[in-house]
Amino acid sequence: MAEASGSPSAAEAALDPEFPPQSRPRSCTWPLPRPELAGPPADPDPEPGGGIGPGSGLGSPEEPGSGGVTTAAAAAAGGPGSGGTRKSGGGSGGGARRNAWGSQSYADLISQAIESAPDKRLTLAQIYEWMVRSVPYFRDKGDSNSSAGWKNSIRHNLSLHSKFIKVHNEATGKSSWWMLNPEGGKSGKAPRRRAASMDNSSKLAKVRGKASKKKAALQVPPEPSAESPGTQYPKWPGSPSARSSEDSDVWTSIRPRTSSNASTISLGLSPILTEQDDLPDDELLPSLGYSSASSNVPPTVTEELELIDGLNLMSPSSSLLSAQQHTSSSMAQRTPSFPLRTQSTATQAPSFGSSLFNPVDISLHSPGGHFSGPQTLEALLTSNSPPPSDVMMTQVDPILPQSGGRLNSQTFLLLGDQSSKSKMSSVNLLRKPSEQQLDSVGTTALASALTMVTAPQNAGGLSTLKTSNPVQSTQGVQQGALPPVSPATLTPFGGSQDRLPNDLDVDMYMENLECDVDYIINTDLMDGEGLDFNFEPIPSAPTYPSTSQASNHTWVPS
DNA sequence: AGCATTAAACATT
DNA sequence: AATGTTTAATGCT
């Protein structure tokens, strides 16, 4: 069944005896989403299992294997049967096949599997499937029990290596998605919790909040740990790869078990994010209002994740030190990811898969080199970081914590239910837009948002706004961004800029917003349930905390 | 010493 | 029962 999603395309890759995973990434050409191209020759290894050499002997799932057998088995069994794989001559210098299936390690195989997926993510089961389908050696081992040795190994590898990250998949109670960590697990394995001494790896910080699950669980009792409602961004539309099934709502939460690189905020962030496990209220946020603008949106967090990471990677060079900046930028970017991407995708969707991939790729490669199209924005934001924007960002930070998208949905929900307060509405409006626009054109957007918000205060205006916002932002992004958006110039489209006082205004605006929010929270949300958000904690959080904090206050009515 | 494969003991869902 | 995490033994480089 899953066949559909699985991508046969992968098969070729896998089959391909030699293809270093790394070569591709940079060229970004390889991952063809669909096999169509290669269609025919899909399997070089036509012969079915029956004959597979090894099969006979090793047929049983159990595998003979005892310890050292690996090699032996490979030699014995593999030799004949594997057919396709055995290519590298024995022993020659380095490329000899180390395992029965070839020279690739489980990790490599898994990576390939994931990469081959249109969305760059797969569930464990899908990975198994891919293996069975793509790697000759496992072909006949597919039906074996889940406890087949190789499956165990796959699982083991997934958990062990930092290059793989697990993303919560709320779809149908399915297992999580596994994707690869853009930052890459590099060579590092997962950071094993704090274990003995954390000294050396100080930077690496074993962040992983999950730390001791069982222990923690036992010890940390009360904390209802508010989680944030996952937001699910509606899946992404255009994606030709329309997911095979389930996942209509994959809100997913990211949790890099290990943030390999110290450089990123992800470090600071991850822990928290990680902990956000959360929420079950799935149904609650289905697209609802959020999609108002676009029923379809982005490709899930997946992309987001990638994007973010990419960002992180690229930005470090310049603003590695300033946590705040970093944070803000990341946030800004984060949200934006979709509008931006969506558009681009829709518009130039020649290869969805790649679109996803591209951004990251680019950022990775040329931190400050050349960019094109969409990336510009990122670059802009990152490199530019004009004072104003900075300010605004900073201010915003506290407010749109991890909200990313979830807040929105929630907000909307609330709004719908009880839109009694004009304030609220304005806030809501703002919020959403602010995020999007913010990132999109930074100042410009903000200005416009401001304008809009200021004016309308009633429901009517609201709706209008809502609708128009997205559009604007989009435009801004596409057209406005590219051109030189000088910090000082901020020009909204309408030319209403005149009235905007600038920073000051923004400032004020922000303040207001904050107040409102507070108010709202206190009033509306609070009584709802025991929500807890702590905004004030770090008044001047100069460092990471800000970020974490932000993500921390997740408010969720559970 | 570091990495990879296996196996297996838990823990979660 | 499927998933995930960890720890450990063992073999290769």
TrEMBL record:
Q: Does the keyword Transcription regulation apply?
A: yes
Q: Where is the composition biased (Low complexity)?
A: 1-14, 59-77
Q: Which domain of life is it from?
A: Eukaryota
Q: Where is the composition biased (Basic residues)?
A: 205-216
Quick one: where's region Disordered? 1-99, 178-256
KW Nucleus (keyword) present? yes
Q: Which intervals hold domain Fork-head?
A: 101-195
List the biased-composition ranges (Gly residues): 48-58, 78-96
**What are the alphabetically sorted keywords of the record?**
Cytoplasm, DNA-binding, Nucleus, Transcription, Transcription regulation
- Tell me one GO molecular function of this protein: DNA-binding transcription factor activity, RNA polymerase II-specific
- Identify the GO cellular component terms for this protein: cytoplasm; nucleus
Where in the cell is the protein located? Cytoplasm; Nucleus
Q: Name one Pfam family in it.
A: FOXO_KIX_bdg
* Known DNA-binding region: 101-195
- Mind telling me which InterPro entries this protein's record contains? FH_FOXO4, Fork_head_dom, FOXO-TAD, FOXO_KIX-bd, TF_fork_head_CS_2, WH-like_DNA-bd_sf, WH_DNA-bd_sf
Q: What is this protein called?
A: Forkhead box protein O4
Gene designation: FOXO4
